[in-house]
Amino acid sequence: MTVLALDFETANERRDSACAVGLAWIADGRVVRRESHLIRPPEMRFAPGNIRVHGILPANVADAPDFATAMAPYLGDLSRGLILAHNASFDIGVLRAGLARAGLPVPDLAYLCTVQVARRVFPAPEGCGLGKVARRLGIRFEHHDAGEDAYACAEIALAAMRERDAADVHALAAALGLPITRAAGGPPRRALGAISGRAMAAFPAEPAALRFTMLGSTGNRYTVALEERPGGPQLRCTCTAGRYGVRCRHVKALEVGDITHLISDNASDVVLLARMLGAKMRVAGAA
């Protein structure tokens, strides 16, 4: 089975705003191929915060291919293979949202999050963000360049395989007790009514069932829960800012699928959270 690492950079807070993609293929215990491309997002709206992270400007992607064109050569490997990503719920979410926005079928996907791998094999008090793990392992790369990030993700998986003497990524996942996450394909869900009514009925979990434990900057643990509100489901955090009704950094991270500081073992629920919040946004936009 093909194994490849995937990384996206986005222009703004929307999952369907990919502006760069990086991929790195693993075979025979090493990275055997690397690709990276700029992507012209459907809307040329670049958030200042995103630009500060990756440095990509609208002018850089003005002549770049759209999502469908950029991803076409790789969809076979992505749909048939095993995808690695550091904070996988984000990158898988971008892939699915980009395909849906382009009007393309979303294939079944199988993926493994290397954040979860690193927490089990290379834990450290400072956390398991991509740059931090790479630095501990001596992996040299240019952070927030999609191609470089995909390469670093692949090298982290390879280092974990060597550390645990695993023959391949599947054996590594089994040894760590990490199930391969499988996301069913198909057309995107459409919300038909108020988010608290028919739209919420489309999801297999109640909002109150979604709770996440986040690690604060000083080592404190906070609970972020999805609560039903008059305007639809909202995330609330138990940190000081959250108790005053502020959208704190823990909430903002989960909203964009960032699980770097997630310490509860439910990263797959972040995918469901994105679908719920996405349905809320679609309903609001149709109102």
Automatic annotation (TrEMBL):
InterPro entries in UniProt: Ribonucl_H, RNaseH-like_sf, RNaseH_sf, Znf_SWIM
Descriptive protein name: DNA polymerase-3 subunit epsilon
PANTHER family assigned to the protein according to its UniProt record, in alphabetical order: DNA POLYMERASE III SUBUNIT EPSILON, EXONUCLEASE
Keywords: Metal-binding, Zinc, Zinc-finger
Gene3D superfamilies for this protein: Ribonuclease H-like superfamily/Ribonuclease H (3.30.420.10)
Any Gene Ontology CC annotation: cytosol
Entries under Pfam families matching the protein: RNase_T
SWIM-type domain span: 222-259
GO MF entry, a single one: nucleic acid binding
PROSITE patterns the UniProt entry points to: ZF_SWIM
GO BP field: DNA metabolic process
